[in-house]
Design a protein that fits this description.
With 338 residues, this protein is α/β, with parallel strands linked by helices. The protein is 38% helix and 19% strand. The protein has a 5-stranded mixed β-sheet with strand order 3-2-1-4-7, sandwiched between helices. The chain has a 3-stranded parallel β-sheet with strand order 11-10-12, with helices on both faces. Helix 10 links the parallel strand 10 and strand 11.
């Protein structure tokens, strides 16, 4: 199987402005593909709705044409009823060489599979495929998540500390860190309410509620400061022979003594860290942990000086300033040559 498309937010029946959105999305992927039988569609349903889902399939006679799609798989998630556990359940079932996290509001352009095959002929390597949606976030965030299965095996499952928000921030950084990023030029349609294309419903409200955002931000900040330790869950394979980085990584420490990190600032930090990782740096983020800025800076300095693996360079940034990626590259280039 060449491609695995994972739909982790399948609705059981029409709700809000999404009448069977997962099914419409699957149909769009199928009709837009050049080799439909090289694609498997993985729809994830929570165990609490599994019976209702199968009854809906039966009463609407959907099975009559699902068999023509290639491979259609329904995965029942027995974990939490949230997009992270749904996605992890779908990843466990994926057998394709290229994995695509579609959600059910992403619609593929015509010939998407031929284009991805052309830009990624060797799927045995850890490669991240950057697609576009027309959003201002395109340069920072991978949406949809699209990469070789080899890269996803290196990445491992999504940390169950997340519920929904900020997951795409983490795997974007990890794609730059662990794999080779390839621009595909593909433009997907994203029917999300923030673009004014769709109305909210119960699934969106669950994923985007304020507490989910705060949980995600706290988890992201903690995991980025730890270097994103791998999480292993049952069913996921650890990488064996594939190495994403041929040369030893150089060490760089980013010291952040500030206490109030705004969302726009965090997006800038994400872009900076992704750039440093793409240049072969192992980035260690040290966040401040005292109320006094003076003592915080002393503590962060001691952390760097007492580290077992001392960084080659240290870069200080704060919650009211940030170094642009291109300027950080210039600073490092200057220090390397002096």
């Amino acid at each position: 199987m060449k491609f695995s498309i994972i739909h982790p937010t399948a609705r059981v029946k029409p709700t809000g402005s999404f009448p069977n959105a997962w099914l419409e999305s699957c149909l769009r992927w199928w009709r837009a593909s050049t080799s439909p039988h090289d694609v498997e569609y993985i729809v994830v349903v929570h165990a609490s709705r599994a019976v209702e889902f199968w009854q809906w399939l039966e009463t609407t006679k959907r099975q009559s044409y699902l068999a023509d799609w290639g491979r259609f798989t329904v995965v029942v998630n027995h974990g939490r009823d949230c997009v992270v556990d749904q996605s992890n359940a779908g990843m466990q079932a994926a057998s394709g060489e290229i994995i695509i996290g579609s959600m059910d509001d992403l619609f593929a352009p015509q010939g998407w599979d031929a284009k991805l095959s052309a830009v990624c002929p060797d799927t045995s390597q850890p490669i991240a495929l950057h697609c576009l949606t027309g959003s201002a976030r395109d340069n920072q965030i991978f949406n949809p998540a699209c990469c070789t299965k080899v890269l996803w095996d290196l990445l491992g499952p999504i940390s169950p500390e997340y519920e929904s928000m900020f997951v795409d921030n983490e795997y974007t950084i990890q794609f730059h860190r662990l794999g080779k990023v390839v621009e595909t030029g593909l433009m997907f349609e994203h029917r999300h309410l923030i673009f004014g294309i769709a109305k909210t419903d119960d699934v969106y409200e669950l994923q985007n509620r304020p507490e989910a955002y705060e949980i995600g931000r706290a988890v992201f900040e903690k995991r980025i400061s730890q270097g994103f330790p791998r999480v292993d869950l049952p069913g996921f394979q650890k990488p064996s022979s594939v190495s994403a980085v041929a040369q030893p990584l150089r060490q760089i420490a980013l010291n952040l003594p500030g206490e109030s990190f705004r969302f726009e600032w965090l997006k800038g930090l994400l872009e900076l860290v992704a750039r440093l990782w793409s240049q072969g740096f192992d980035v260690h983020l040290n966040f401040g942990y005292t109320t006094s800025p003076y003592h915080t800076r002393i503590n962060l300095t001691n952390d760097v000086l007492n580290a077992v693996q001392k960084p080659e360079y240290v870069l200080w940034i704060d919650d009211d300033n940030l170094v642009k990626p291109e300027d950080a590259a210039r600073l490092i280039s200057f220090l390397d040559s002096h």
